[in-house]
Amino acid sequence: MRLDEKFYLSENNVPFKEFFNFGMSVDCILFGYKNGEVRVLLIERGADPFKHFWALPGDLVTADLTLEDAASNVLYRLTGLENIFMEQFHAFSEVQRHPVGRVITIGYYALVRSENHKPVASAWATESKWFNINKLPELAFDHKEILDLAIGTLKRKVRNEPIGFELLPPKFTLLELQKLYEALLGYKFDKPNFRKKLLSMNLLVPLDEVQSNVSHRPAKLFKFDPDRYKTLKEEGFHFDLQ
Amino acid sequence: MRLDEKFYLSENNVPFKEFFNFGMSVDCILFGYKNGEVRVLLIERGADPFKHFWALPGDLVTADLTLEDAASNVLYRLTGLENIFMEQFHAFSEVQRHPVGRVITIGYYALVRSENHKPVASAWATESKWFNINKLPELAFDHKEILDLAIGTLKRKVRNEPIGFELLPPKFTLLELQKLYEALLGYKFDKPNFRKKLLSMNLLVPLDEVQSNVSHRPAKLFKFDPDRYKTLKEEGFHFDLQ
DNA sequence: TTACTTATAGTATTTTTTACTTTAAGTTTT
DNA sequence: AAAACTTAAAGTAAAAAATACTATAAGTAA
Fold first, then answer.
1. Closest CA of chain B from A221, distance in Å
2. A126 touches chain B (CB under 8 A)
3. C-alpha–C-alpha distance, residues B71 and B59, integer Å
4. Assigned superfamily of B22-160
């Protein structure tokens, strides 16, 4: 079946073919965490429109790719990493949102361990840089709106699913985990109670290893157990951080 | 700026214009509630592809509409109602998901008070009918996948936001509310405790009115107070039904 | 050895959840 | 009109969870 057969008509008898003129893009909000700050990786655009503006990394989607493929590609070109944690969160479709044509974009937020990679420059980005999510520059297109929604989504998700671990190194202390959550959610936890709560969830595996190069009693290291979470979830467990 | 100027190129030097060949559609999962059952409104397709199959109501998006407009239009043509509660939940982009061309669809779930409307037939639907969400027919396209995700989203959302009220008449008893949640979540609540919990949230306004035409002590009627919820939410309140 | 810092265990209080009981208020039947 | 029945709605006691705080342990640095 070919489009130009005009086989399939919409309700108002417009040829099917005429509906096929949308551009699709993906925009990625890559979050990282370092020195107690939650950060997002932005690029400086190397081409018009919005040349020299800071923007979300993203790209137009080609006909052979799913949105997930396209977003993975963007993240790979940006960081050199594959299998980054990534989740779709919203479609943005304001008619005038893109100055060059009718482009609908799908937002993905993604989480990385900041130290694991060096941001790479590319044809569409003259520079890439981490920004504290509370100190953001002016952004191209409707990217501020997209980023704001991504931050809101992250804050909600991080309370209801154990995805915060994606931002930490594989081995971490309980205090590091607490500080991460405090940075993400914007409020403090009581240390002994935070410990108790997290450990009672049985999601953390204690390792036979402690911090090194610290000038005080070194804390025990833990790792997150994704399989354990999967099992518990099937049994009805629901991750929830107050 | 016109597309054929080829002003804006992707990373691989493909003319910008060639990216603009996607079809966009919206598909709506309209949920209702009647006689203790959660239901979804499906249509029988009146045209190929998948003629005579049951399917989600949806339509291709035209260039002058946002996705929200398009979804509202679908719901209006289906029910005759405007301002139906509706929320975007996912974009579906498998390359082969539509047999006629590359169509990416955005899923919206919507909630109505079942008794408020009569489903209407239209050019793209020879019939529309409510189905119990546990007794669904075979569906066209990838609509089963879309519907499954919508049901999962509804079950999660209904616990964390007071949207269940959209499925009930404006005036309802606490037992009616309890039965709705039991149908949605698939487990039972203790009656006195359910009452206590809901009333302690201060989201329900007691009315000077009771049930009529019941063969037992009539229960007091309540209404949901959306403004109160808005205020409480800003103060940090978080709706949560275990 | 002492001072200092942070880890980690423990405890006591308050609040919330859970399970269950009792009483009230209406309708229907006899 | 009384009795039986059904559901509403309030109350209560036990268990569990969250909260606030204290004490001790284990390391580093002076």
1. 32
2. no
3. 8
4. Nucleoside Triphosphate Pyrophosphohydrolase (3.90.79.10)
